């Protein structure tokens, strides 16, 4: 590793800004949509437990490496990994794979984000008309053609517009102050869901693990979710690391981000599963779980229609923070490497994401629902390829680079920044980076291939 001069680079304006922006990337549809839906389709608590372990043992160490490398190199992800190990430029493949992951993720993410924006509109219309959105209305939206594509396009135009405006202004302003509101609203949902008759089965579903539900595939999904959730394994957090000011303490920042993010996911789970059981629904409801359940929960409350609207507005905002960080990966690269102007880079990236995104959206509609690749629809394929293949493999490579190939002294210097002395946790974190994280990723990848274990 070699430090780069950083005087010309835009950095987050404050420590709090760095935290909120990182949290802003982490918190998104992953918490509110994906965590509940994957938990439901992977059998509940055993998945949750594996997921929590994956966040702590793998996610936090990999985030630390990404921030260390990003801040040290002060470059976009491709160039950072090209230069981080002297004479081994091929690690830039991490950055390239990250660009591919960003586009793949956005292809289905913008579809789901479009549903969220559509639900802001639909729940407002329903509230005015004094009715509740029925679960079937989600099916009608998701399997449509023009309607979901129009929402998807709207989402992309909005997010690329924010990106075109620049790093600190664009990202920090959007994410600051709104997460606490989302947190508060989820708490309201939880209280309502947990006091519904029959809700305790949902709590048991989330927290009483049945270890016989574990398999290589479940382990890999949990690991993939940990990467997806914390925006790891693809250079997003490396890029964000390159905007971190020196006074930010990398380890506590990563730990706080992981805690806040996990808390939001668990709160979402605690709203959804108790309600699913109370209303006699099925936990394995698939991608529509969130959209079918939330309006029902709120319909049992005074001012429920209004709360539903606010809920979807806040989710939409959380989603923007995450999407901004996804688009930022290719944009940072195009701007710094391709010397393209920022708005042009944002437009090009948005266009590529839209082109692929349309295939994900149409794969839910009769137009493309018959087309399967490797037995999966385009939507599921992009999701699987990114979360269960590219991110874990990218994370493994990042952990190997951080733990084995860059100078330990320089790595430790980054961890020490922001402290007067040497913090106590440095060595422990380094051991996780070097042994625990890569070891676990490798074990899970092997077990999902059926080579070993459950
Ligand atoms: N972490 C985001 C979420 O959970 C998604 C994301 C993945 C963002 C990868 C950036 C990079 O919604």
UniProtKB/TrEMBL annotation:
GO terms for cellular component: membrane. CDD domains: SLC6sbd_Tyt1-Like. Its main location: membrane. The keyword Transmembrane helix applies. Belongs to the sodium:neurotransmitter symporter (SNF) (TC 2.A.22) family. This is Transporter. Keywords: Membrane, Symport, Transmembrane, Transmembrane helix, Transport. SUPFAM superfamilies: SNF-like. PROSITE patterns: NA_NEUROTRAN_SYMP_1, NA_NEUROTRAN_SYMP_3. One of its GO terms (molecular function) is symporter activity. It is a multi-pass membrane protein. Pfam families: SNF. It is found in: Membrane. The chain crosses the membrane at residues 12-33, 45-69, 90-109, 149-167, 174-194, 214-236, 257-281, 301-324, 344-364, 384-407, 428-452.
């Amino acid at each position: 590793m070699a430090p780069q001069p950083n005087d010309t680079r835009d950095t987050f304006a404050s420590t709090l800004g760095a935290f909120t922006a990182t949290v802003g990337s982490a918190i998104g549809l992953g918490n509110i949509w994906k965590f509940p839906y994957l938990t439901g389709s992977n059998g509940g608590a055993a998945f949750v437990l594996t997921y929590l372990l994956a966040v702590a043992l793998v996610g936090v160490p990999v985030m630390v490496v990404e921030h260390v490398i990003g801040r040290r190199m002060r470059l976009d992800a491709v160039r950072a990994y090209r230069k981080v190990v002297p004479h081994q430029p091929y690690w830039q493949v991490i950055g390239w794979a990250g660009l591919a992951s960003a586009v793949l993720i956005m292809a289905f993410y913008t579809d789901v984000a479009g549903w969220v924006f559509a639900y802001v509109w639909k729940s407002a219309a329903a509230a005015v008309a004094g009715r509740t959105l029925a679960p079937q209305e989600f099916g009608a939206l998701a399997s449509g053609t023009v309607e979901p594509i129009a929402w998807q396009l709207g989402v992309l135009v909005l997010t690329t517009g924010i990106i075109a405006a620049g790093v600190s202004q664009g990202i920090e302003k959007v994410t600051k102050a709104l997460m606490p509101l989302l947190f508060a609203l989820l708490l309201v949902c939880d209280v309502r869901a947990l006091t519904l008759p029959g809700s305790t089965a949902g709590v048991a579903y989330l927290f009483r693990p049945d270890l016989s539900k574990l398999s290589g595939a479940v382990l890999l999904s949990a690991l993939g979710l940990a990467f997806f959730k914390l925006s790891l394994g693809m250079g997003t957090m490396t890029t964000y690391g390159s905007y971190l000011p020196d006074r930010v303490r990398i380890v506590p920042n990563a730990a706080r981000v992981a805690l806040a993010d996990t808390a939001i996911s668990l709160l979402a789970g605690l709203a959804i599963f108790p309600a699913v059981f109370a209303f006699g629904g099925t936990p394995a409801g698939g991608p529509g779980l969130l959209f079918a359940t939330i309006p029902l929960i709120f319909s049992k409350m005074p001012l429920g229609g209004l709360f539903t609207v606010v809920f979807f507005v806040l989710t939409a905002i959380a989603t923007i923070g995450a999407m901004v960080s996804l688009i930022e990966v290719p944009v940072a690269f195009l701007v710094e490497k391709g010397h393209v102007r920022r708005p042009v880079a944002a437009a090009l990236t948005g266009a590529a994401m839209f082109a692929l995104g349309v295939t994900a959206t149409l794969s839910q509609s009769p137009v493309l629902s018959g087309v399967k690749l490797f037995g999966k629809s385009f939507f599921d394929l992009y999701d699987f390829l990114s979360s269960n293949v590219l991110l874990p493999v990218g994370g493994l490579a990042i952990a190997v680079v951080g733990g084995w190939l860059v100078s330990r002294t320089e790595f430790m210097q980054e961890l020490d920044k922001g402290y007067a002395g040497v913090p106590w946790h440095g060595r422990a974190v380094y051991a996780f980076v070097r042994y625990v994280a890569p070891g676990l990723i490798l074990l899970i990848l092997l077990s999902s291939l059926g080579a070993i274990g459950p």
